[in-house]
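WARN  no MSA supplied for this record, continuing single-sequence
INFO  ligand: iron/sulfur cluster
INFO  echoing inputs
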Amino acid sequence: MAEQGDPPHQKKKLYIETVGCQMNLLDSELVVARLRQDGYELTDDIQQADAILYNTCSVRQHAEDKVYSALGRIKRLKEKKPEVAIGVLGCMAQKDQDQILRRAPHVDIVVGPGQLGRVPELLARAKGDDPTRLAVSRARTDGSLETITASFETYDANREPAMRPTPFQAFIRVMMGCDKFCTYCIVPSVRGPEQSRPPVAILAEARLLADQGVKEITLLGQTVNSYRYRAPDGRIWRLSDILAKIHEIEGIERIKFITNFPNDMTDDLLQAVRDLPRVSRYLHVPAQSGCDEILKRMKRMYSVAAYEEMLARTRETIPGVAVSSDFIVGFCGETQESYEKTVRLVERSRFKNSFIFKYSAREGTRADRLYPDDVPELEKKRRNNELLAIQTAISLEDNREWIGRTVEVLVEGPSRTSVRREGWDGIDQLTGRTSCDRIAVFDGSERLVGRMVRVAIEDASAVTLFGRVETTEVVATPA
Ligand code: 5AD
Ligand code: SF4
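INFO  complex generated
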């Protein structure tokens, strides 16, 4: 609904930037969908915007710094155009709360990830004399579990196709929050207690997305494989049950889920991935470190041996599965010897890829309270680069094994490097992913976007398979 006093039929313009994980991308989609109902439309031009929103991340300092510098850059814009509403949403809003308003007084609203449903109301009020500027959830120590949980609202009502990675790929939240409290991690305090959404809500959303033409669904949760829901009839739903149900929905050709916690990788889940052909044979299971003492300090609740047992069981159950991991280097107390244990785990595990991060101390976490951040920045950087080089060499070796094989690829769109040739003949360079989440690049007509094609692999780099479309025949029938 347009606000009173706005010229009729004139759309307000919304500029939004999203930092961080897929959960944030989904949150931004939901906020935009809701604001469209209030007469906003998206713009890429920040100068034209009536509202500027940053959906933020707090996992590492670097992500926060980026937002503060973006806020610094738009200070002048706000001076020239005071009516523009500026909002900081997401994890940083929950973590820093009114500190953001002090540090960047030109910000109008600060809204935590558990309060995103209030964005429209706060934006509308931002123009008033005494606006409420802050909407955050309760701290994890601030009341009973019920009141804290209730302050992190579910907010998955509206969907906005324009905000998706592509028109046929979408996210669904299956869990919110996290209760693992790894000592380095800010997520449990900014995203609140772990909650599994009811299966009926998840399945209704999956059906709606399929009706809208979505072919690939990615289920999201901080520890998605810990999903557990007791239905009113007493039945316990696990992630494997959700996968089986979504698998039945016509039009859904690929299902993924991220991110997994090693201890919750149960056999029923592994068997579901093995037995349901449309479930991607790809598992992201962060190990974080290859040293038992460090894992203990991180409170990851498994040993290196237990992680490797899980990995062996996964590979035995699901032939051809690709596994990827996250690692933090330079965590408090990580000696050269403990780091080398991580190197050896990476060498043994042959992950498809690993995301490697330098430890970043986060205020409010247990590690920050208990342990000195004692690995020098340069050493963190050295370990990061070295571990990445080791992983890259493994990825290259394993990707080269694919040369000469044919893979099924869901075509996502033109490849980023593709340049329209002069006298364009309808052939372009396309990109997509295999069932085990490998990126494939090949020549093909734009008409193939959103379809499943067979690609014969002819070359490979550490991150990409290069090939030729074997047949343009659609392998799985689109809806
Ligand atoms: N410093 C560096 N990396 C971190 N991660 C989480 N918290 C921190 C931190 N304080 C990494 C973990 C996690 C990924 C999403 O981010 O590896 O799996
Ligand atoms: Fe953070 Fe650990 Fe929860 Fe992952 S499992 S979100 S690393 S606390």
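The chain has four domains: 12-150, 164-280, 283-400, 406-471.
INFO  checksum written, moving to next record
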